[in-house]
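ok so i was messing around last nite and threw this chain in just to see what happens. nothing serious, just curious
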Amino acid sequence: MFDQTQATLRTQGEFALESTISTKDREILRRLANQVAELAARPIEGEKRDLWYRLNTLKPTRPVVFCDPENGWNEIITIDQFECQGEMALRWEMTLRKEIFWGAEMCDDRVVEPYFIVSHVYEESDWGMQEKKIGGKDGGSYVWESPLQSYADLDKLHFPIITVNHEATDRVVELANDTLGDILPVRLRTAWWWTLGMTWTLVNLRGLQQIMYDMYDHPDDLHHLMAILRDGHLAKLDFLEENDLLSLNNDSTYVGSGGFGWTNELPQSDFDGHVRTCDMWGFTESQETVGVSPEMFAEFIFPYQLPIQERFGLNCYGCCEPLDNRWHIMKEIPNLRRVSVSPWADIGGMADMLEDQYIFSMKPSPTDLAMTGFDEERIRTELRDALQKTRDCRVEVIMKDNHTIGNNPQRVVRWVQIVREEAETL
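result:
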């Protein structure tokens, strides 16, 4: 099973597994790459690209639709469909097969691009402590033992260190070029992070329940820990920027917790080819503090996120946490453009707050695709109501966070059809 969640896909990098691709695997990959190239050459891809440009600059559009089944991909592209034998070839085969399904079957507004992306080969150390996970096999639930049991151990923390294996990276790029480059030009691009919100790291180190106690019992220590995490994240951005490891994400790059980066507002007007964080979309969220009051969030979390948000040219905020009662805080984020509206949010209330000044990133519940039955009428009714409430907003409808689609690939296809039908009748 491949872990298809964005949090994993965007941070794993390439593995220097093999220095060659077998003749048979090469033939398979080239056949699939040709199919991707044919899809990418269709005029509709340009139309979809223009739609994202309009949305991201807050111009009126129909609601834009994107479906990423995440771990549901393992039920769409099953083990028995794979033909390659080598481990790297298998990973590339999955990437190509996903592109083909997106373009030929899913038919949402995601653009199929005429190039192939590989990432750097690198390692990133921990913060000096590592949580112990228990469970989690095949994408299942897990618990963890948090390593920072006492704030007396804060001095044991250190900033993570990124070590790039440039030689192995060059080999991966060369191998991809030799295999696919004449069909799909190869681009080296690494995401380096999924979120810069810090609270995922916070709860891994200290524990979810414990940080809530800490806000009352150890407020000064918690502030100290958050300052360490803030400074470590800023140091990471400095390292990536200074070593020319960043890439522009003003194109088909996945940004935030759903959506794509197409915009002419980035990079900055003084861009000289060296990518800085101010030339990019940034992303922060704090799902882990969903049970924390707005006042506590404003005291312990947001002040430490703000210096990170200030680094970026445009910002995305939020994922699964409802932002209704935090909006008075969130709207202080500089260059905020994309706002996640989770299944637990008040759709009408958020529509009143966001209006046409931000991208309303609507996240319908993934349980619609996971349940025993697929209730099309209920899905349609709820979507119609949500789209009516947001008709004056700049809307994207994003399906994500799927762990299963009920072993029925047609559910994602039909879900996209329903959303498009409702979007086009507004």
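not much to say yet. The mean pLDDT is 96.
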